[in-house]
Backbone:
C-alpha cells in the first residue's frame, strides 16, 4: 500500500511542477466554445493522475517488474508532461497536437494491455483516454483556427 501512495504523490508532484502559468498568448487564441474554464483542468488532472497511479500500481503488483505495459505507462507519462511546455511555453500548437496524438495512441494500447492483465487496471484508464480525446479536439480547434 505504501508504494501506491508514493506513486500517487510523485505523479501529483510532477504534475504540479510541470504546470505553466497561462499567459496572454493563450488567452488571445481563438478557442472552441467547448473549452472549459481553467479551474476545471486543475480539478480533472489530479483525479486522472490518481486513477492512472492506481492502475499502474495494480499492474506493478501483478508483474513485480518493469514489463512492456509499465514501460508504455512511463513513456506516455513523459509525453503527457512534455505537452504543457510545448504548447504553453513554446507555442508549438501543431507539434503539441502530434505529441497529444501519440500520447492518445499509447494510452489506447496501454488500456488494452492493462486490461489483459487486470480488468480494473484497464478500466481505470478509460477516463484518461476520454479526456485526451477531448484535449485532442481542443488542440485541433486551436491549430485550425489560429
Residues:
Amino acid at each position: 500500500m505504501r508504494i501506491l501512495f508514493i506513486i500517487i504523490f510523485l505523479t501529483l508532484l510532477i504534475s504540479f511542477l510541470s504546470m505553466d502559468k497561462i499567459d496572454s498568448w493563450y488567452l488571445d487564441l481563438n478557442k472552441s466554445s467547448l473549452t472549459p474554464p481553467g479551474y476545471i483542468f486543475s480539478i480533472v488532472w489530479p483525479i486522472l493522475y490518481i486513477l492512472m497511479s492506481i492502475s499502474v500500481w495494480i499492474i506493478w503488483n501483478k508483474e513485480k517488474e518493469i514489463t512492456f505495459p509499465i514501460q508504455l505507462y512511463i513513456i506516455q507519462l513523459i509525453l503527457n508532461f512534455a505537452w504543457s511546455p510545448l504548447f504553453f511555453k513554446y507555442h508549438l500548437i501543431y507539434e503539441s497536437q502530434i505529441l497529444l496524438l501519440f500520447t492518445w495512441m499509447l494510452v489506447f494500447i496501454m488500456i488494452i494491455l492493462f486490461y489483459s492483465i487486470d480488468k480494473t487496471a484497464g478500466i481505470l484508464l478509460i477516463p484518461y483516454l476520454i479526456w485526451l480525446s477531448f484535449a485532442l479536439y481542443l488542440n485541433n480547434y486551436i491549430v485550425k483556427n489560429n
